[in-house]
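Let's sit down with a protein and look at its sequence and fold side by side. Go ahead whenever you are ready, and we will take it from there.
>
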Amino acid sequence: MQMHTYQPAHLHALTRCLFEASGATPDIADIVARILVNANLAGHDSHGVLRIPLYLTNISEGGMNPAAEPTTVRESATTLVLDGNRGVGHLTAYRAVHQAMEKARTSEICSVSFTRVAHIGRLGEYVEIAARGGFIGICMVGGGSPNTLKVLPFGGKKGSLGTNPIAVGVPTGDEAPFVIDFATSMVAEGKLQVARSKNAPIPDNFIVDKNNKPSTNALDFYDGGFLRTFGDHKGYALSLMVCLMGQLSGSQREGRRSGGAFMQVIDISTFTDLDSYQQDIRAFLDAMKTTEPADGVDEVLVPGDFEYRNRRHRLKHGIEIPDTINEQIGEWADRLEVPVDDRIVEDEDRGHYYPQMNADGRG
């Protein structure tokens, strides 16, 4: 598989320009570009710029309003319900975590639910924002509808669930916060998109084909197949729990459908001293990594290490995009009359990334 390498600022500028040309305001386009490129920097290509063609198609078909800002449905000192107004999901989630952090600074905790949004991208982005602000962040997005979706309930032969991911971020006082972010399906659907773009095989326990037979070909998922939940009945139960938490938005009233997003931000300083807590967490995680590795394993890692290492490497060496995806992005650039060379890169685009390389002196 041929790959095309972009410097982060160039990929950011291209993404920003594409969304602006599709009708997003400069502020919204910049936020979405940051979130997508950050996913690639973290090593989660399934939630990065690979998604651009799908998002732009959704916009062109009227399924997403790229200029829509979320609005507040109701709120209290410790709660917030947002309506995404069919806008870009990344924006609503970004606004939600920042508003939640503001409320938690004065009220110790804030819980948020929101709906009427498109895909919100990598959940780890939002809990990492909270963790870097000195908070514990929790985020989950759920969807369920019997016999109409793409993830099998345990014991079922028709998809009735979304991938229904969960993420948690905990601050460590450094550039590698503790972050878990996983789908309750065996993998996020975006991982199948990555495999498809590279024509690569997948493990035989990820999906079943349209005849409910295990398959190692990602194309079988897109030809009527289904994802499985991880951990059999345990992943299924967690997936249902995510649906029920998302239901706090009150968006689904038919009884047979459930869905929405739930987010919570917790102010650590209301429990204990933040600096001491972060030092203790870092010491505990570092101690965990001293565990003797199993045969064939180089080292024991903790959540957050993968993202931190990838970010350092890709800030320095660039982000590789499969040619199949790069060609699709190029087609959209032609259609929207957006230049693809690096003359579109502005100082603000560079400022999002290159100071990170110098901030800790380890770029």
